[in-house]
From TrEMBL:
GO terms for molecular function: nucleic acid binding. It comes from the Eukaryota. This is Transposable element Tcb2 transposase. Transmembrane segments: none annotated. Residues 83-135 form the Tc1-like transposase DDE domain.
Amino acid sequence: MPICIRVWRQPHESMDPACQQGTVQAGGGSVMVWGVCNWRDMGPLIRLDTTLTGDRYVSILSGHLHPFMSIVYSDGLGEFQQDNATPHTSRIATEWLQEHSSDFRHFRWPPKSSDMNIIEHIWDALQRAVQKRSHHPLTPTDLWTALQDSWCQLPPALLQTSVDCMPRRVAAFMVSITSSTASDISRFHATSCCGTSACSRGPYTILGRCTSFFGSSV
């Protein structure tokens, strides 16, 4: 997600320093992160320094997701939701989730379904929070620090609002596809069930996702 800054100016003010933002040559770098959240809690935000593979994803599940689930859902009633990215559906990751099914449930993402994961709203809020900082990150290290600080400061109401609006979003989505074929409607219905599950508060659904953030660039 690129870090952009919008400026209102007159046509003749394009070279005014007050209407410009300093950058670094060849861009400010990027940071890929994995995060997890639910209706009431912000989980860990993890920096990924290399391409995510099945093996590396399992290390995230075992080293970060599992401890978080064990603390938040000691009764084993938590649900974990993820999309069908290749590392998520790799054999090693699938086997790991099956082996830990007694610790928490893995809510399967319907194939070819629309992306209605609430964590997309969290990523957007995180990006805007970084943009509003007085000092904009120009290096990957600065960007990672800004992401960590902003992640910890996201208000709980953001999580709750994002989850609570899901029934309305799912209903609107179902209305928008009324002209689809019967097979499409059947597939979208599976998606709506997935979205509805994300609204559950007991057990709470955990939503995990990877994304990339980019620093200021030319």
